[in-house]
Write a structure and sequence with these properties.
Among the domains are: 13-200, Rossmann fold, CATH 3.40.50.300; 205-260, no CATH class; 261-353, Arc Repressor Mutant, subunit A (Orthogonal Bundle); 664-831, Tetratricopeptide repeat domain (Serine Threonine Protein Phosphatase 5, Tetratricopeptide repeat, Alpha Horseshoe), CATH 1.25.40; 839-922, Arc Repressor Mutant, subunit A. 64% of the residues lie in helices and 4% in strands. The protein is built from 48 helices and seven strands. Helix 5 (153-165) links the parallel strand 3 and strand 4 (170-176). The radius of gyration is 35 Å and the shape is flat. The relative contact order is 0.04. The structure holds adenosine-5'-triphosphate. Adenosine-5'-triphosphate binds at residues 29, 31-33, 35, 55, 57-64, 67, 146, 177, 236-237, 240. Adenosine-5'-triphosphate (ATP) binds at residues 29, 31-33, 35, 55, 57-64, 67, 146, 177, 236-237, 240. Residues 853-918 form the HTH luxR-type domain. Belongs to the MalT family. It holds the Pfam family WHD_MalT. ATP binds at residues 55-62.
Length: 924
């Protein structure tokens, strides 16, 4: 951006001296981020008289406008206002001066400061100014910056007059923290105004990423960037503070985490912003309403306990504080999250407000509006068992069917045990919540406490009903303990009985039946059960159960190797969620998670990453403990992209979480698989050895489901990483046999890939190629890609050998070629290039037109090729001898011959040659 020169020809009314900086565009900050998303607004619209940019302080209003107008080479003049510009004479002078910069006006009018009526002087001046403007010109902008400073009604009136009579080529740009009194409502209705608000100005995650990339010397994960943007709601000043405060990616992450509790610098900023200007009444309004996640005038009056709420709200909105409309209706408002944290901090440090009473009033108000979630949150904050029980009696079942477990838990935690034990519904809710959090011992405690309590007061008949419903949850717990026999027996009992307390008990029991069959490997039967569960759940409008049943159907289809079918089922679940507006429910994370797994397998890395990030966003309120699966996916994606340090960060997080919590084997095995691949890539043998000592037990011959299979494969892969192929082989063969018998096609596919690798490593070429061929065959239904690419560069060699030997054709050959291409593109961060020189590869190298001439004219023997690749892998002569099981002197002889043929005299040249040749094959 260049500073525009002041036009000396402009006459200054009343002998005004112009300060150049006031009528120049501001200088761009260092590291200015271009914001092209505003081009549409500025360029493609019909010309309008007013472009209004209004947003709270520090949202980038000025910078964005200056940057865009400059980039678009728009003809623009600036007038940057300050308090003294409330004087109409001064205002008129500067305005005319600014206009003179963009429009050729030979005679500027003079203003008569002694105009006998208020407004007359400025208005007649503006009339003359407008009359002197040329009828047509190229589009131009006149920018009035910091307009909130103007308090003089005469000037507002003058601007309204100006807006009515501006020539079509001239757009007035008003930048303000507040909504200026310029007849905005009318202009908006007439379509004569473009509005840019904090919602538009907020940086999105892509912009924030570019912003941080420019400023930070370290890499920040996409997840952290998205979290930061969410927490600061795209407010650029907070992003700026973040980039100035964090020196490492860990500090960055801590900083973002702590924003929920508050940050002194941000508090100071808000202190300065609002401190002096507030009346006592306004201040009290802000503190009291800070407990609300959103409010309208009615809600405010209830919580404030006085009738002035509406007027106060209006006065605060006019101040341009961090209050934003919740939606386009502009009836409901909320505080910016950081501002709300600040206000709550102030509220907590004052003794003048009775917080408990505020929350109680809020509970009652929300209950009256039938907004159960908010009511529950305030009842918990009020620590009021009577209100909590009231909310739960009215809405507890709904929370449950929606899967609002965290909310339920907060409510139930605040209730005395006795109240729960006396009430079968509350007990059921309590026990389901405990089971959802893997606190299985607690489940039984709650159930038996209630059974004891209820014995004394209930008929035997009623007790039987209660017992039946309790069986549904006991079945689920048995399932989670891996006891599918007991789970089946209990679930059958529960399914047979009508539910009296939780209408969804039978649905839950039916779901356990399906799950139990699934883990036993009875896939078709399990699928049917899950379809039935879905129908039952739909009949009860039990959203959580519908999505759950669909996710399970998808999981079963994945196990059957039908990934496309799984994808379609997921689509149905997404559609259901959309139709019922369930996007905020925690269960949606499950859906995103299984979608990301399919996406990873199909090598759609961006989608896989996006789904994992969305999962994290959904779970933000539930706590980090639940991110394990999402982090695992992000680690897998980082690995597939060859981003080692990012992958290491995620692996470290996953490890920490696994060490701290109890998770289902499904999650654990999935996470371990990724950890092992990572350790193998970075050759961290110690980590793999350590893992083997604590690895979950595995019985490959009983691996009737995907997580037992995965767990078994993990052990085999760990052993292979340590070179213990004979230990790995029986595990993989047993897994393959079970998977084949019961139709676990995806696992079968993965097992064949692992076996191909194993046999390749022990130089059993024939078996290796056979397993790879079978894997490719299965991939025609699974569509698997990710599982192949996980092998790394060695995949290229095996596939080339398969093609070279003519063992595959048609679809399989095409698939193999595509996989080779992808493997070549894949960035591999393992230290050495571990590609062995099979005949197929050597042939491939020799056939290439770009190989050095000597390779063709003085061909190497197979042994020499082998030695060349081992030299390249960094092995010493002794190590090569050991590897090939020959004497050191033999190695030396081969090396001499190799050097002679290729006209080489140093080892470094041999390494260079190998690197060059291999890079042609493996794409690095
Ligand atoms: N596109 C951008 N690239 C880099 N930094 C930016 C960008 N936009 C804003 N900033 C920085 O953010 C801070 C706030 O920007 P700016 O002063 O433009 O906000 P504002 O909304 O006009 O604030 P105020 O109401 O206080 O005048 C400044 O330090 C600015 O340098």
């Amino acid at each position: 951006m260049s500073e525009k020169p002041l036009m000396p020809t402009t006459p200054a009314p009343s002998n005004l001296t112009f300060i150049a900086a006031k009528t120049s565009a501001p200088l761009p900050p260092a590291g200015l981020l271009a914001r092209e998303k505003f081009n549409d607004l500025l360029q493609t619209r019909e010309p309008v008289s007013l472009l209004l940019v209004h947003a709270p302080a520090g949202y980038g209003k000025t910078t964005t406008l200056a940057e865009r107008l400059d980039d678009l080479e728009a003809k623009a003049a600036w007038y940057r206002l300050e308090n003294t510009d409330n004087d109409p004479v001064r205002f008129a002078g500067y305005l005319a001066h600014a206009v003179g910069q963009i429009v050729d006006t030979p005679d500027m009018p003079a203003i008569d400061p002694t105009g006998d009526q208020q407004g007359h002087g400025l208005e007649s001046f503006l009339t003359e100014l407008l009359a002197g403007l040329p009828p047509s010109e190229e589009p131009s902008y006149l920018v009035l910056d910091d307009y909130q400073i103007i308090t003089n009604p005469e000037i507002h009136q003058g601007i309204r007059f100006l807006l009515r009579h501006l020539p079509p080529y001239l757009t007035l740009v008003v930048i303000s923290r507040t909504l200026p009194p310029l007849g905005v409502a009318q202009l908006r209705m007439k379509g004569q105004m473009i509005e840019i608000t904090s919602r538009d100005l907020a940086f999105d995650a892509d912009e924030a990423q570019s912003y941080f990339e420019q400023r930070l010397p370290f890499e920040v994960s996409r997840e952290n960037i998205e979290r930061a943007v969410r927490r600061v709601e795209g407010w650029v000043s907070a992003l700026q503070l973040l980039s100035a405060s964090a020196r490492t990616s860990i500090e960055f992450s801590h900083f973002v985490d702590q924003l929920d509790q508050g940050n002194q610098h941000i508090f100071d900023y808000f202190d300065e912003l609002v401190g002096q200007d507030l009346s006592e009444q306004q201040r009290s309004f802000l503190l009291r309403t800070s407990i609300l996640d959103r409010f309208n005038a009615g809600m405010v009056m209830r919580v404030m306990n006085d009738s002035d709420g509406q007027a106060l709200l209006g006065s605060l909105l006019a101040m341009g504080l961090f209050i934003t409309p919740v939606d386009n209706s502009a009836l409901w408002f909320r505080y910016h999250q950081l501002f709300s944290v600040y206000l709550r901090h102030l509220l907590a440090s004052t003794t003048q407000e009775n917080q408990k009473a505020l929350h109680q009033r809020a509970t009652d108000a929300w209950l009256e509006l039938d907004h159960a979630e908010e009511a529950a949150r305030h009842a918990v904050a009020a620590e009021d068992p009577e209100r909590i029980t009231r909310v739960l009696n009215q809405h507890g079942r709904k929370f449950f069917t929606e899967g609002q477990f965290t909310l339920l838990q907060r409510c139930l935690d605040a209730l005395p045990q006795k109240i729960i034990a006396e009430d079968p519904t509350l007990t059921l809710l309590r026990a389901w919540v405990a089971q959802g959090q893997y606190k299985f011992d607690e489940v039984e405690n709650w159930l038996s406490a209630a059974e004891t309590q209820l014995k004394a007061v209930m008929s035997e008949e009623s007790q039987r009903t209660v017992h039946g419903e309790f069986s549904a949850i006991r079945a689920q717990v048995a399932m989670n303990y891996g006891d599918s026999d007991r789970a089946l027996a209990l679930a059958r009992e529960a399914v047979a009985q009508e539910a009296a307390y939780l209408p969804t008990s039978r649905v839950a029991a039916a779901s356990v039946l399906g799950e139990a069959l699934f883990v036993r490997g009875e896939l078709q039967e399990a699928l049917t059960r899950m379809q039935e569960t879905e129908h039952m759940a739909r009949a009860h409008q039990a959203h959580q159960n519908v999505i759950w049943a669909l996710c399970q159907q998808s999981e079963i289809s994945v196990a059957m190797g039908l990934l496309q079918k799984a994808y379609n089922i997921q689509e149905r679940a997404f559609q259901y969620a959309e139709e019922n507006q369930l996007n905020h429910l925690p269960i949606l994370e499950f859906l995103f998670r299984i979608r990301s797994q399919v996406m990873w397998e199909w090598h759609h890395l961006e989608s896989a990453e996006r789904c994992a990030l969305q999962g994290i966003e959904i779970l933000e309120a539930q706590g980090e403990r639940w991110y394990v699966q999402s982090y695992t996916t992000l680690a897998k994606v980082a690995q597939a992209r060859g981003r080692q340090s990012l992958c290491a960060d995620y692996i470290a997080k996953v490890q920490k979480m696994l060490a701290a919590g109890d998770y289902h084997l499904d999650w654990v095995a999935n996470a371990h698989a990724t950890m092992l691949t990572y350790w193998d890539a970075v050759r961290d043998q110690n980590a793999i050895e350590r893992w083997l000592t604590i690895a979950p037990p595995c019985k490959p011959e009983e691996a009737t489901n995907h997580f037992y299979q995965c767990n078994g494969r993990n052990r085999a892969r760990a052993l292979m990483s340590l070179g213990q192929y004979q230990g790995a082989r029986p595990i993989l063969e047993a897994l393959t046999s079970v998977a084949g018998q019961i139709g676990l096609k995806t696992d079968l596919n993965r097992n064949h890939i692992a076996l191909a690798y194993l046999f390749w490593q022990i130089e059993n070429r024939e078996k290796a190629l056979e397993h790879m061929r079978l894997a490719l065959e299965l991939a025609s239904t699974t569509g698997a890609v990710g599982s192949f690419l996980r092998l790394g560069k060695v995949l290229i060699v095996i596939l080339k050998a398969l093609i070279n030997d003519g063992l595959i054709e048609g679809m399989e050959q095409q698939r193999a070629e595509r996989l080779i291409q992808l493997a070549q593109q894949q960035r591999d961060f393992s230290r050495a290039i571990r590609i062995s020189l099979d005949e197929a590869i050597i042939q491939d190298i020799i056939d290439r037109p770009d190989v050095p001439e000597l390779i063709r004219t003085s061909p190497l023997t197979r042994r020499e090729w082998q030695i060349l690749s081992l030299i390249h892998a960094g092995l010493s002569n002794d190590q090569i001898a050991e590897h090939l099981k020959v004497a050191s002197t033999t190695v030396k002889t081969h090396i001499r011959s190799l050097y002679q043929k290729q006209n080489i005299s140093h080892r470094s040249e041999a390494i260079e040659l190998a690197k060059d040749l291999l890079s042609k094959i493996q794409g690095e």
